[in-house]
Structure formats: C-alpha cells, structure tokens
Here is the input.
Amino acid sequence: MSTDDHDPSHPNGLNGHAKITGEGCIGSNGASTMTAIAVEDQVSGEVLTNNAGVGPAVQHIPQPVLLDANTKSGLHDDGLADISEVWANGESEEADGEGDNNKDNSNNDDDDDEEVNDDDEDNDEEPALKYERFSGAFHDLLKRDSASALAVSNMFLALGSHNGFVHILDLTGQRIKTFKPHTASVIDICFDSTADFIGTASMDGQVVIHSITGTESYVFDMKRPLRSLALEPNFAKRGSRAVVCGGMAGTLVMHEKGWLGHKETVLHSGEGPIWHIQWRGNLIAWANDVGVKIYDTASQTRITYIERQPDSPRPDLFKCTLHWQDDSTLLIAWADMIKVARIRARPRTSTSAASANLPPFLVEITAFFQLDCMIAGVIPLSSVMTDQSLLVPTHTRSASTSSSSTVPAPTSLLVLAYTPADTLFLHEATDDRAMQARKTAERPELRIISRAGEELAVDALSVAGFQSWGCNDYTLVEFGQNDTGKTKGYLVLSPKDVIIVRPRDRKDHITWLVERKRYEEALEQIEIMETEDTETVDATEIGRRYIEHLVSEGEYTKAAKLFSKVCGQDTKRWEDWIFVFAQKQELQAIIPYIPTDTPRLDHLVYEMILAHFLTNDRQALQRTIYEWPKDIYDISAVIVAIQSELDRYVPSAFKSTALLVPVAPDTVILMECLAELYTANRQPAKALPFFIRLRRPNVFELIREHNLFTAVQDQALLLVEFDHELMSKGEGTDPNKRGIAITLLVDHIHSIPIPRVVQQLQSRSRFLFLYLDALFDKDTHLISDFADMLVDLYAEYAPAKLIDFLRASGYYSLEAAYRICTERDLVPEMVFLLGRMGDNKKALHLIIERLGDVNRAIDFAKDQNDDDLWEDLLKYSETRPPFIRGLLENVGAEIDPIRLIRRIKNGLEIPGLKPALIKILQDFNLQISLLEGCQSVLHGDSSDLAKRLHRDQTSGFFITSKAICPICDLPLQDSPSSVLLLFLCRHIVHARHVDCADEFPPPPDPVVASVTLGGRSNRGISNRIAYTAMVRAKLRQGCPVCNREGQRT
Here is the structure.
C-alpha cells in the first residue's frame, strides 16, 4: 500500500489525490485471487474500482492507511465513509453469494461422490513439512517450570522460563549454561548477530544483557513490566552497545553506552504498552495499542505509522508479531490480520519547506489479508522448504480446507495459527458466567499461506497440554540459517514443549513415493541425490520391491538395470536374482550388469554365464574372456569345456607342427579363447601353438612376455617362415627386410644358441643370411665361426654390403673370400682382398685394367703409402692421358708435380692439360699467398704483444701503506730505512728476502743525499739511480716470489 505525502490541511488526513492499493483472496469455490481497491479522490468519495470479496478461510480486507510518519490513522471523516461503502458493497456481494449458495444446498447430495473422490486425491498429496519433538535436556528443565520465551542463533538456543531462568542449549538439546537474571517471567529473549551476547526482558521490569563467552553484562531497571527488547545489529562489535526496550509503561527507550555510562533516550511514549520490538539495520519497528511504527536511527526520525484494525481483539490476549524478512520488508501479524510492509526510499522532489522535514523513506503495504484464526507467529517460508522438484504435481486445494498438503509456493508465509475455543472474546463484558468461563483450546496449526492469501497447507500440531495454552503462549522462530540465507527449520514453543519443524527433503519425498508404490520415481530421486553429492538413501529395499514388480510383469531388461543399485555389495542377493533369471531363460538380460570386482560372486555364476555364451553366442564368449578378470572363475574347467567343443570340429588339429590352413570362424574363436585362457592360466607354452596356427602376430609378444625363448629353440625356422608370411601380405615388402622373428632370435642368443639356429636355417639360405647379417650388425664377433659362410651369403644376397663386411671383420679366410669374389667377379672386393694379402701391384693392376678409375687408383696408393706403388702408377700413366690428367688434378704431398710433368713424353696429347696446369699454378700461388698472409699476421701480433709486455712491465702502479710483503706478510714500509725491491712481475718484497741481501751497499742517508756540494737542496735523484744500479748488479736471480712458485721473471 502506498500513499502520497501527507497534507495536514485536508480534513481526512490525505491530499486530494491519494492512491491506495491492496491485495487479498476471494471466491466462493475456495480458489484464491487478488483484489485491488483504488480510491482516487477522497474528497468526492468516488470509487473507481470495487471487486472486493471474502473467501471462506482467508479474507482480504483493504486497509487504506496513510504511511507517513505524522499520520495517526488511516482514513477519517469523509474518507472513512467512502471506504465503508466499499466494504459494504463487498459484504453485500458476499451476502448475495451466500444466498446463491443456500439455493444450491439442495444439490449437495448429488455431489457427494465427487467429494469422496476429492478426498482420495487429497490423501495422495504429499505433505510439505515434517515434525519432531526437541530432545536433550529440554524436558528436564521444564519439569518444575514452564517456558515463556525462545531465541535461536546459529550456534545456541536460549530458553526463558516463568521462574526467571535462562537456559543456554546447543542445537542438539544439550544444556551449556543456566543462569537466573530475573525474579519473574522472562517475556522476551534475543541474541546479537554473533551470538556473543544475549538480552532478556522480564515482568520484573529489568533488562539484562549478558555475555555468553565473557563476564560483560548490563542491567537496566525500567520499574514497570517489560514486554520486548531488541539489540542493535552487530551489538558485540559496536561500542555503543545500544538496546531498545519497552513494556507496560508505554515508553520505547533506547540505552546507549557513552563515556560517562549509559544514556537513556525515549523514542516514543503515550500510546499504550509496547508489545513487540524488532531492529534490523537502521530501522526499528515496534507495536503498541494504536499500531506499528518504524523508526530510522540514521535520520533519527519516525518514518511511518501503520494503525491497528479498529475491531481487533485485545492486544494483551492476541499478541502482535513483527518479523523482518529482509532489510526492507516487514511482516506484521496481529490477531487475525497479516500485513506485508515494504520500505523504500522517498523519491526526490523539488526542495520546499513542506518536504524538507519529511522522513527519507516511504512504506507501502504490498499484501494485506485476514485469516480465520489468530496468529501466534509468522515467518517467511524459505525456498528450501518449497523445492518444487521434490514434489509431484498436485491440484490446488481450497484455503478453507482444514487439512491439506499441497505444494507450497516459493513466495509464501509460515503461520502458527491459534483457533480460540471461544469466539465471543470480543464480548468479555457479559454477565453470563458460562460465557465467562474459559473454554478448552484447540490444537495449534501450522499453515502455509501464499503471498496472494491462498492457504496452501495446514497441519495440526500435537502439543503437550495444548488445551490450557493461549495464543500468547506460543512462539515460532527459525533456526539454522546458512551463508546463503536458507533456513534449515523452525521451532514451535509452548510452555511445556518444543516442536522442530523441518522441510520435507528428498528422503521424505522418496519415502512418500515408496508408500504409494511409485518405485521408479523414488529411484529417480535417489539418482538425483547421488548426482548432487548429498546424503543418499539406501535403494536396496525400494529396488527389491520394484524388481519383483517388473519380473512379475515380464520386464526383465528394465529390472536388470536396477541390480547395481539394489544388490550393491550383497553377493547372495546378486546370485539369487541371477539364478532366477536363469530359470526363466532370461540370463541374457542380466549379464551386462553382473559385477566382476565389487562385489565378486561365486565362480559357479561366472562359469554358468560362460557356458551360456559357449552354447549361444561364441563372439560374446570371446569378448567376455578378454574383458573379465581371470581369477573370478575356474580357468581349467572352462578350458576343458572349450577344448571339448573344439574337438568336435577339429579332433586332430594339433598333432601336426605345420601351419594350418584357415578354419571356420567359430573354430577360430574357440582357438582364440583357448590361447587366451592358457596364457592366463600360466601355461603359455600350450598357448603358443594356437597363436602360431592362427597366424596371430602376438605370438612374438607371447614369447617375449612369458620368456618362451628356450621353448622355441627348435622352432626357429617355423617362426621365421611365419614371420615372413606375415610380412609378405604387405605391399612392396623388401625381401631382405628383417622381421620380428629374426630380431627375436638375435636379441636372445643366450637362450637360443646361434649354432642351433644356423643349423635349422641351413635349408633356407635367405633366412640364414638375414639372421647372420643381423648378428653381424649387433656384434661383429658373434659371426666369427660363420664368417666364411656369411661372405658367400653376402656375395649372393647383398653384394653391396660385402665390402663393408670385409673391412670390418677379420675372421674370414682371405683366400676363400678372394675365390668367392673371383667367381662372382666382384672387382672392388678383389682389390681390397689383394691389398690385405699384400699383393698391391696386382690390386693396382685390377683397378687400372678392370676399373679404369684413376681416383680409386690414387686412393689405393695413398692407403698403401708405398713409393714403389706410386712409381708403378706413374709409369703406367705415362701412356694414358686420362691418368696423367687425373694425377695432375689430385697432385699433393704424395706426388711432386715436377716429377709427374717430366714423365710426360713430347708430342703426347693430353686432353685438359692446360686447365690442369693452370689449376696447379693457382693452387701454388694460393698457398704462397696464404703463407705470406700468415707470416704478416704473426709478425704483427708478435710486435703488439712485445709492446704490451714492455708497457705493462715499465708502467707504475698504486700501492697503499697497508700493503704487505708476500714473503714475510709484514708491512712493506715497516721502517724508513728499509729497502724494497720491485720486480717486473710487479711483486714487491723486502731486500732482506733475496739470497744476496748481505752484499747490498747500505742505502744513502736521506739528509746527505739531499745536499750537494754547492749547498743547494735537490731531490737526490742521481744518488737514488746510482744506488739502484748497484743493487741490480748484485742480484743473481729474479723475483723470490716467482721462484718459490716455480716461475721465472
């Protein structure tokens, strides 16, 4: 509800254009709707909109209230009359509706069946809340006392009693601390935001603020019974330690701590007792007999006044409840009325004298409705309590239904409802003693009310001794707020009991679904809990029931998907269900979900599955054998079964050592299975024949993995042939390419002896060549016994590699090798062998006659380094111009060009002679130029270094008075008459450290040396030079420091 600024000049307290809006619920059929009432011109009384009505359980009453601070009532005089007309119109419409309903009562019997169906649907609706009694020390504390006030923080629960005690408990109900600050009933308790301080107000007129963790405490005596108090926000962190209290004296007092003690400030007085106080941020809200007011501590002004309904019952019988939903929303519950007030900043206007003193905030009533009960407490319902995902869709119930459990809306209120036993409490002045007698009260109820005024859920509470308690004996508080502001639950306090109210979580939803045999939905909720990483529910029993239902319906595949969740780690349950499926011939449906690790079932189960695959699906058998761990079943038993099946198709399959021809696909699968099982059973030797006969490349991996090299000593030829067959399937395969088999034989010569392999490969010379060649590449000494054989094999299969072998090996027979090369006319190899045998001339003759390669002849002569060989080469070249030119082009240190040129006969035509000679001359000129350049550089560098040495030796350098002698480690200037020797190595030592120090002349007297015969003073340079020359003449060796270090100066 919002209003314009207050105009005192107007007779009804409003300016000429006040706008009032309100909300509520109406409808004779129980459905809730919103009602808007607008009053545009209070002077004329014209009503523009009138759609008011009253619902059966929650009645919306538009309240035209001026929410400025200076207004004391909503509408007066003419304005009140206008609104009364609006209400009258609404009541008349309601009466008309009731009349219509009375006319329809005759038809109610026809609708009985529909009502029964509606009741059945109501029973299937899920409740929104769950309840439990507060345990711990609570009941022991109230055996001789009764509770009167309750406050909850994030850590503690404070309970006040009528005997003046305050009990501090933790949230589990364990008592932490008890003290008695009052002599009468504790009416109100509150914690500060940090739960370090607790404040209490009592009927004895005292306010006590006590530190829970320390000794700090404050006591204020107000002389009159108190009804409520509130601590300022962040009380423990503020130095002012402000507290607001009020009670039967009718004054709202603030106590603030100052330099000279506490300062007392009266914020309001004169309008009856203060019934309730709430402090949030800078706003203080309180209720008195007249209504609710809000005070801004920042501007120190009262910003609004919300009047109490004129026809409301006595405030001392039905208390007012104030609750700050947030910093700008205040919930007001008084008697049977609920108002939601929204505080907002006042819009900026042009500065004037009238608006300068207005408060900085405005308040509008955003919701206003009336219930059919008295309100003992109201709290906004947390979003945690209204999680739509937990609940199934249900139809909306009427707000007048006494017991319902529909889905609460996200924006709703939790109301603690009290229904008076006597509805004539407004007529207390009657003389009838029967009417004056107190009636037995009814059970309190928790209702969920939407912001639209729609009643969503009602639950009656089983409170101990509820017949004796009144509305003011109940208290509703929230507890356990987390960092996101979500409330974990609520507490309902009565004098002898505390009930914990919590939202129904997913676990409760699952239980509700199971009770109605909606197993699939329950399991879906369990999966959601697992994905949310929250505490989950055991799905075993739920799944068991669901599986039984599915099996009875014949849905085996759907049932099998549930086993992992239902059976879990229970092996017996797994086995029982598997045998059930086997009996029903539906084993295939459950096999994909059977566990192999956790849990591990009996080996008979797995063997039964493998037998099923052996009979029905051999590809699945092979896949299962590869995937399953081998230790979960008896491998020997499975081998026997598969071998028996294989013998039916190939009874003599393994008697021959030759490679088999391709067999049927099923037989191949069985052989693959046997090979895998033998390998897993640590019988690789038995698996090897299967791999070879199946032509599987992993046969070599099997040999390496299980170290079967000794087992294949006599199968070298078989392995090489198998490997060659595998390689021959590729396109463009090199026949001399080594395969895996050759590599395996070469890498394990210690397990597979070389002579044994050579003996087996004798019949296949190419395989023998590949084997010996691989051995030679690995180590030239390995083929020492087979060098002659390898020469012949190289000459046949790889002539290009023969020369490298002849050069690298020394184990072959030169004569045999030469004979083989002669037979195959391998001239380069023959030249090499003749050179090694010492027949260089014959070798040179082969090069010249057979090869005609002058460069090779020159290289051969260089390698032999024989002058006679060079002479033969020159003699042979005299009549062969190409050889002469080749020698001229390769002339060097071995051949003197002059010697070669003199051998050229006159008139011999040599093609390219002139360029060859020019090249020789150019090469010599280049050599001479290089030598001269090197000599010039050497002379220059020597001169520079000599000059640098002379400069370094003759230049002076700086020494300090603290310099020490490197021989005796004493200061150099130890006395004025000491003689110091400076060497060219820059070492300075005392003269006494040289060997000939005794032969040195005494140093000249400084005084005498400075006077000449002419009587004039000079520096005595001549005397010093003369003395230095004499000392130098006596020195027979250089620097003693360098001599000691093994150097010479």
